[in-house]
Amino acid sequence: MYQSLRTAFARVRAGHPVDWSLVLQGLLNVGVDRKLIDKAAEAKVYGAGVYKVTILNEEAFLEIEHLISPVDKSSRSAASLSGNSHAVSVNGAMLAVWAADEPESVNRIFKDELPMPQPGRRHALITENEECFLNKEATYRFVKEHCEVGHSYEDIEFIYGSGNSVSNKRIIPYLKSFDGDVMCLFDVDLGGLKIYANLLSAGLPVETTYYLVPMDLRDRLQRSKRKASAKELDALSQVYGKSELTDKVIGAIRHYKTTIEQESYRADG
């Protein structure tokens, strides 16, 4: 499986057509996140099993190439992929961060042979949604007005953590080194709750690590068209008991049988 995927990616690099439908299914089968795939490349069908693939995002495409590359036995296996998120590169980890007075985001690189980066601000606001990260000013207004965040905009480092990668063992010490709070703006669903639970299990203190939800959460769940499956509702028991707030969130999800994608917060302006 991995060899055929690597061959297909080499053909894409060379500008040759591939059967992208088979490649896509193969990537999903080994656990690569669909959002990462869609970010990395776009395929146009020219015939039965013939697709012209265009690389949209070099960084995302390269990350997938790392994930399907031969396993390094001396490090974390690239094949150890989560069932609902993708893992980081076997040789390290990376976070995109952005502070108020910086013209653009920067990448924090975490590798065993490099010194650990240091936070640029007192508090961290983690979002797993790229749109919310890229529009950090609007995201800040939302958490200030709807989630009772009282910290000033200038004191916050905005962090884009794609899926569960933010709980990577190399990144955890960095998150622990913030002097203030680590605020998590995740989806209000099983996936978002799992990421938060993983951060706590990795050692982030519950006293300063917050799962942000809007004050009108129940109204939003009641209006939401994003239905929670019976399987997801049952699986919420896996993350019950992590904090008083998240237990209330779980109760609300079970009551309304709906979930909320954090990108919907963008509708609030």
Keywords:
single chain; about 270 residues; alpha/beta; Dna Topoisomerase Vi A Subunit, Chain: A, domain 2; six-stranded mixed beta sheet; 11 helices; 8 strands; about 35% helix; about 15% strand
Tell me what you see in this structure.
By secondary structure, the protein is an alpha/beta fold. The chain folds into two domains: 2-67, no CATH class; 93-268, Dna Topoisomerase Vi A Subunit, Chain: A, domain 2, CATH 3.40.1360. It is 36% helix and 16% strand. It is built from eleven helices and eight strands. The strands form two sheets. The chain has a six-stranded mixed beta sheet. A hairpin with a 6-residue loop joins strand 3 and strand 4 (106-110).
String of helices and strands: HHHEEHEEEHHEHEHEHHH
What is the 3D form?
globular
The number of domains: 2
CATH topology of the largest domain: Dna Topoisomerase Vi A Subunit, Chain: A, domain 2
Any idea what the radius of gyration is?
Answer: 19 Å
**CATH architecture verdict of the largest domain:** 3-Layer(aba) Sandwich
N-end to C-end Cα span? 44 Å
